[in-house]
Design a protein that fits this description.
399 residues; alpha/beta; seven-stranded mixed sheet; five-stranded mixed sheet; 38% helix
Length: 399
């Protein structure tokens, strides 16, 4: 089936639910057994044993997501960060070494530095553009190579096949954060990646009203990943699973609109004199465009903009007065968002030029003309703020 059909059909069986179109919400903690023999029977990898192990609502979403990802199975958790943490802890032990991309999602980096380090796991951050040169960073104790493509905040596209080829040759497990593209626009498991992680909080839910993490994997690693989820108690509520299933059914049409709006806004930004560069792999001008075009079949609504050097007051005025862009973290809902960021504060393997103010935009489902009008007024405020900060001609001559 095509992905658009999978999104509609997968994870639901109306005949098993009295003809009801959508899987119902099964809320449960205690599960009753008919006999001691049944209670003592060895359990399958997945099943309704206790509320924390999942309910039919959980499994319906897992099945739908696994079908979309092209995975043997998917495991759900309560947030994207929990999915990252659970996946890493499932396959790591004291003395292991992780290769983590330098452009990883901030909370992923925090987990490595604050938690894994306490348990004797060492993390080395690497340049996202290193490609097959990753070979020189692999040690005998390297257990996981972790990717995120495009990179968080700065949107570098990684050469996933090249990285996977080296990792497999050295017996290193590969993981990737695939939240930006979702498995609708990018399927890393088909390129040999072992575990694909998605923050379902974003586009899968699609309405900024739930928290969800997803880790999808191959048959080889599925049992270990599910056991790791159960051991850590990383359960997601059936109500959130139900909401995510509703969001999943419209993922294709929403992403197509997000992409179209984002491309229109990204091209508009490129033409503005106040903009130094737009960081969006779908643009021909983006350094990662060739890799994106090779491996992805679409782009989401998230990109970054680097402004030309200006005063802090000027770019604050630009952001603070926006009407159609909410100022906040996260993204992937129906609404447009804006968030300033400072990549130079977290990088350790790569340098970042802090002269250019960095702003991340999520382009929602509004009319692009209204968004552009809002941004035009914002640049008007930026220019006015820059003029107020500029020295007078007499001051310039005396300087």
């Amino acid at each position: 089936m095509k992905d658009e059909t999978i999104l509609v059909d997968a994870g639901r069986d109306p005949l098993a639910n009295h003809g009801v179109v959508n899987p119902p919400v099964y809320r449960a903690s205690t599960i009753l057994y008919p006999s001691v023999e049944a209670f003592e029977t060895p359990r399958e990898v997945r099943g309704v044993y206790y509320g924390r192990s999942g309910t039919p609502t959980t499994f319906a979403l897992e099945d739908a997501l696994a079908a979309l990802e092209g995975a043997h199975g998917a495991v759900l958790t309560g947030s994207g960060k929990t999915a990252v943490a659970q996946a890493l802890m499932t396959f790591l032990e004291a003395g292991d070494h992780v290769l983590m991309v330098d452009t990883a999602y901030g909370p992923t980096r925090q987990f490595c530095d604050r938690v894994l380090a306490r348990f004797g796991v060492e993390t080395t951050y690497y340049d996202p553009l290193i490609g097959s040169e990753i070979e020189r960073l692999i040690r005998p104790e390297t257990r996981i190579l972790y990717m995120e493509s495009p990179g968080s905040l700065t949107f570098e596209v990684q050469d996933v096949p090249a990285l996977v080829e080296v990792a497999k040759a050295r017996g290193v497990l590969t993981m990737i954060d695939n939240t930006w593209a979702t498995p609708f626009f990018f399927k890393p498991l088909t390129l040999g990646v072992d575990v694909a992680i998605v923050a379902g909080t974003k586009y899968i839910g699609g309405h900024s009203d739930l928290m969800l993490g997803i880790a999808s994997t191959t048959e080889e690693h599925y049992a270990a990943l599910r056991k790791g989820m159960y051991d850590l108690g990383a359960f997601v509520s059936p109500d959130d699973c139900y909401q995510a299933l509703r969001g999943l059914r419209t993922l294709a049409v929403r992403l197509e609109r997000h992409q179209a709006n984002a491309m229109a806004l990204a091209r508009w930004f490129e033409a503005q004199p106040e903009v130094h560069r737009v960081m969006y792999p779908a643009l021909e001008s983006d350094p990662g465009h060739a890799l994106w075009r090779r491996d992805f079949r679409g782009a989401s609504g998230l990109f970054g903009v680097l402004l030309e050097p200006c005063s802090e007051a000027a770019w604050h005025a630009f952001v603070d007065g926006l009407e159609h862009f909410g100022l906040g973290a996260s993204w992937g809902g129906y609404e447009s968002l804006v968030m300033p960021n400072w990549p130079e504060r977290s990088r350790t393997a790569t340098a970042w030029d802090a002269r250019f103010p960095s702003i991340r935009f999520h382009i929602g489902l509004e009319a692009p003309e209204d968004l552009i009008g809002d941004l035009e007024r914002g640049f008007g405020r930026l220019r006015a703020g820059a003029r107020r900060q500029a020295p007078s001609p007499i001051q310039r001559s005396s300087a």
